[in-house]
Amino acid sequence: MEKTSLEKLRLGIFVILGTALLVIAAYLIGNRQNMFGNTFTVHAVFKNVNGLEKGNNVRYSGIGVGTVKDIVMENDSTINVVMNIQENMIKHIKNDAIATIGSDGLVGSMIVNIVPGSGMGAIIKSGDEIISYSRIGAE
User: Fold this and answer.
1) Is there a single domain that holds both residue 27 and residue 43?
2) Is the CB of residue 100 less than 8 Å from the CB of residue 47?
């Protein structure tokens, strides 16, 4: 049975559209690492972000709890880092926690480390600001 050129054209269009949809879906899911979990947003203000980028990890006491959602330059000496934190971690992070920027290993990417404060503060809410500590970079 010989295929007509119309059937070949339909098959080609189907394959191209299917491949395009697969590539677009993979891209969108890759950009939204916290897409399937409930998250809340907190931010910290730094003077220097030392190579931090969107999508880098956020850790609380060494445990991965989220990702960097956005980095906004507010003025010449203030950089606002917005972080998505997993909803189940909200009961552990207090508003006296301190955010620092560190390196993930010797030559790894930069991460935001959230260090517990005294533990006497109130539980953090979505949209709250965490105190930050900026180290002077040695690069």
Assistant:
1) no
2) no
25-79 tens-digit pLDDT? 887 776 555 555 678 899 999 988 888 888 889 999 888 898 999 999 988 889 9
Q: Are residues 5 and 54 in the same domain?
A: no
55, 60, 39, 77 alpha-carbon torsion, rounded to 10°: -60
Check residue 1 and give its pLDDT. 47
pTM of the model: 0.69
80 and 128 in one domain? yes
Give the domain extent around 8: 1-31
